[in-house]
């Protein structure tokens, strides 16, 4: 027998209630958490309806009759990317499902294989943290016959292009995530990204920012994580000491991420070089992070991993949104050069569970926009008064300052040539005037100052 999947019973109800009219098909995602022994599935979310002129299913074109050849893989994978941004640490897209009429059952397995590899590739693109040997790379696929309701569960190792389907054990259970521990963390940002003179277009700015974020992300990964103020050995059980028969109650842990101080200047040799830059980008503000950990003997090293990954994910997601916004709306931003706020992270409860998902509320948006987006992406109604918008206060919410006149001019010119529609993004930017000289190799790291729950964390090495 292959991997085992413990599935929240609300997933069973959701799948059984899916409407599959006529000969159409429905695709969707499974959200949960993996562990070395088994995986936990807590949510199923179907792919939203695509706005097209014809009728048909949300992700399948019926032009070729009874065939899955024209399934819109790109639409499914983009939905998966959007959903993955809305998940806190510890939770991820761990599989896909496909509901088809009986006549398409033979094609289902090949289609699911194609889907799961495409989804994983699209989500992983641009990821700034590294996989470890303990990371599970098997993803689950589920085929459901719309008429007989027969279910076929298989897994694929997405790190092996030649991976073949393996059987898996799919079991429903109630209260799967009731007692999952919650980790929270506040992180202050003050990141400076030098922009070289040749880097004056959005795609060049993206390269600068991604390179800078990779340096910062590595520092977060290598940093020391305190849990409730203590540096716990990695193998220590986070919930140690609890009685087996004790009533399941969710516990909350406070995390802090400390970056080691640099070694003294006299003990290291500087390799800095001087380069003329056309300006800089500064990312600053406070971000609020959350992560959940399964309750099957979670260890401190796993808690450290999920909260660090959430810190990295929430920052990199906002930078991606900012860059997308520059391409999509640059020509309309006459105030490029005035500091603007990035989207604030807001949290919304998952109906009937002790979990929250997140979204990013842009400065010109209101809570109703978030509620509508949750409905579209996650397929459930969220009352506006249940959405927590207080976690990232406006005065401390993340912003990006664009300090450069050359970049501003090129952004406006570029936006008139390339305004391809992309996914929603963040606002942002402020300006500086005159060219600056930065010390390449040192300026990036020296500008990073992280604040974790009151502790100043400054990294000064190259």
From TrEMBL:
UniProt keyword annotation of NAD present: no
Compositional bias annotation for Basic and acidic residues: 415-432
Biological processes annotated in GO: intracellular protein localization
Ribonucleoprotein among keywords: no
A Pfam family it matches: ODR4-like
Chain segments carrying region Disordered: 413-432
Residues that span the membrane, as ranges: 438-460
Listed GO CC annotations: endomembrane system; membrane
Keywords for this protein: Membrane, Transmembrane, Transmembrane helix
Compartment(s) where it occurs, according to its Swiss-Prot or TrEMBL record: Membrane
Stated family: Belongs to the ODR-4 family.
Function, in words: May play a role in the trafficking of a subset of G-protein coupled receptors.
Name of protein: Protein odr-4 homolog
């Amino acid at each position: 027998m292959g991997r085992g999947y413990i599935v929240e019973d609300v997933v069973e109800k959701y799948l059984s209630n899916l409407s599959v009219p006529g000969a159409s098909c429905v695709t969707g995602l499974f959200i949960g958490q993996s562990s070395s022994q088994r995986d936990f599935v807590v949510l199923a979310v179907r792919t939203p309806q695509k706005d097209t002129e014809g009728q048909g299913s949300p992700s399948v074109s019926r032009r070729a009759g009874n065939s899955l050849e024209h399934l819109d893989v790109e639409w499914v994978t983009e939905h998966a990317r959007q959903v993955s941004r809305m998940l806190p640490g510890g939770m991820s897209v761990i599989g896909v499902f496909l509901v088809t009429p009986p006549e398409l059952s033979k094609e289902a397995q090949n289609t699911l294989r194609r889907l799961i590899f495409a989804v994983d590739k699209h989500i992983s693109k641009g990821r700034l943290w590294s996989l470890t040997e303990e990371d599970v790379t098997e993803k689950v696929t589920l085929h459901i016959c719309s008429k007989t309701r027969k279910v076929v569960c298989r897994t694929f190792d997405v790190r092996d292009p030649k991976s073949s389907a393996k059987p898996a054990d799919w079991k429903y259970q109630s209260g799967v995530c009731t007692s999952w521990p919650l980790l929270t963390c506040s992180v202050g940002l003050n990141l400076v990204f030098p922009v070289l003179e040749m880097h004056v277009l959005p795609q060049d700015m993206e390269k600068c920012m991604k390179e800078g974020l990779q340096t910062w992300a590595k520092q977060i990964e290598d940093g020391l994580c305190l849990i409730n103020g203590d540096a716990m050995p990695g193998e220590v059980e986070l919930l140690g000491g609890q009685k087996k028969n004790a009533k399941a109650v969710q516990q909350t842990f406070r995390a802090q991420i400390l970056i080691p101080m640099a070694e003294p200047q006299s003990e290291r040799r500087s390799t800095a070089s001087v380069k003329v830059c056309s300006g800089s980008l500064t990312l600053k503000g406070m971000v609020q992070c959350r992560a959940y950990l399964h309750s099957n003997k979670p260890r401190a090293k796993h808690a450290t991993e999920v909260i660090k990954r959430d810190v990295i994910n929430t920052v990199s997601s906002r930078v991606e949104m900012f860059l997308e916004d520059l391409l999509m709306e640059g020509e309309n931003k006459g105030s490029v050069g005035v500091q603007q706020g990035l989207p604030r992270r807001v949290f919304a409860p998952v109906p009937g569970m002790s979990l929250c998902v997140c979204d990013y509320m842009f400065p010109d948006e209101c809570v109703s926009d978030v509620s509508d987006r949750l409905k579209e992406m996650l397929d459930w109604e969220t009352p506006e008064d249940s959405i927590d918008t207080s976690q990232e206060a406006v005065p401390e919410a993340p912003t990006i300052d664009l300090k450069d006149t050359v970049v501003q001019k090129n952004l406006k010119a570029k936006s008139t040539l390339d305004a391809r529609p992309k996914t929603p993004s963040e606002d942002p930017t402020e300006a500086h005037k005159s060219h600056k000289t930065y010390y390449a190799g040192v300026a990036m790291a020296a500008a990073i100052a992280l604040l974790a729950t009151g502790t100043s964390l400054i990294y000064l090495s190259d």
